[in-house]
Amino acid sequence: MTRYTMTIDGRSAPAAPTFGVINPATGEVFAQAPDCSEEQLDAAFAAAERAQREWRKDEEARRKALHAAGDLLFSRAQELAPVLTAEQGKPIQDALFEIAGTGMWLKHFADLPVPREVIRDDDAARVEVVRRPMGVVAAITPWNFPLVLASWKLAPALLAGNTVVLKPSPYTPLTTLAVGELLREVLPPGVLNVVTGLDPLGAAMTAHSVPRKISFTGSIATGKKVAAAAAADLKRVTLELGGNDPAIVLDDADPAAIAPKLFSRAFQNNGQLCSAIKRVYVPEHLHDDLVEALAATARAAKVGDGTQEGVQLGPINNRPQLERVRGLVADALARGGRAAAGGGPIEGPGYFYRPTVLADVEDGFRIVDEEQFGPVLPVVRYRSVDEAVERANGTHFGLCGSVWGADVDRATEVAGRLECGTAWINTHADLHPGQPFGGFKWSGVGTENGPWGLESFTELQVLHRAKS
Fold it and tell me: What positions carry a catalytic annotation?
């Protein structure tokens, strides 16, 4: 059975206690990961604190190191992808795509300017506003995209001159541990420390005295706990939390043309994507046609072990999430909803669930009101665009949304009325390292990616130089 080690101060850090990692395609433990001790966590933060004193001094060296890290991931993608598939469940081609995206994010930030602004320069004074690193960052990532979401934190944090202690989800620790081992080749000791473990490791990180910034991606419930823990020490936070993204289909849309796009944006990574489409609002006269087009696409999708050729959708990552999806669908069906496709798990080993399209559901159904984070898409009728927008906005969530229609200007106007961090027109979940990403309301605090994300890992400093 494969064992992986943590990275602390640039060295291998095994742990005597370990925990099992389950392959969601089989439901069986296939590897062991180290369970970080309190002493090891202290050592990781101490190493990061020491390393930061030198790391912050040389911006050009940081840029070269980020480029080298990205290139290293590109070169080792073929060996990392099977590990990611085994622990997360996604098909091999999707694992390769995630690793490539991780490398792309690192290299994008390697070339991003760190702004310095002269806001006054006259006979009396020169005043410059500069960006300074915060210090040590605690980064906590989820199980759906363990690598690329880590890069959203690592790339800007490291470029800005911070050092990092990174903790992946205990459901998907292995590829992150492997990347930590690889990056020992290109990052100075202590700059990136990777620790893994079961609860309460995450809580111990957020409460630790060393980090000055917590960057967390995960559930709203845990995000609130992170914010509360950070408040006691006035730590800065970036929280990327849940989404219940609406897609509004306008009355001039062609159901047959948009159904494959809606399906791909709702079922990407088996629906386990915070920015995926989670509910579709459609005019009454287009409802049946859109439901059938989506259902046909769902029925044709190949579900299976991500190592098998041609598989489009793998298993749900873990049993608790499988049971949550099962419960949400059962609730909808019990209340009069109809499964136009799917509607239940696939019998046999692993956490497989049939791609499901639900019709005859309404706001007030749990499957519409809550984030399902799985391969289920509810389709809801509406009578007017104003009603659709009001219902789309009538939630604590505010991550993303999209509007679909033939008249792009009209669709853009409707998209501008959505209360969310990103509103797409005739696409969805189209992300880029230069494009800011963040949520309104309970979907998050702060922004990731682009220069805005970089700035979130810095503190403003004013340099005021008198001339007389």
Answer: 240, 274
